[in-house]
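Lab channel / #folding
Pinned by the channel admin:
"Please post every new chain as: sequence first, then the structure tokens as a reply. Keep commentary short and put observations after the output so the thread stays searchable."

First post following the new format, from NK:
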Amino acid sequence: MSAPAAAVNPIRNVARWSALAAGLVYGYVHHNTLTALEHNRAEQKKIEHRDHLIAQAKAEWIKMNTPTGGVVTDPESPNFDLEKVLIHLSETA
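Reply from TO:
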């Protein structure tokens, strides 16, 4: 005759199911966190690429719109000199 099956302690059973539920919740939250981080990195990369293209376009525009005399007419440029612009305008007028 075989030995009777030992009864599983109900506290141990509750602990097992609780651990399983906690693991599932942790996995779900961790997955969502990693997905959000990856989405943020991709979005940041798009923004940096767009900013790079804008800076490149501004530099090209300045290069194309700078008169041949080398006078910078953009007042926001760090190389802007009002005196040179006024002299250049008085010479060309």
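NK: The mean pLDDT is 88.
TO: also worth noting, The two ends are 118 Å apart (CA to CA).
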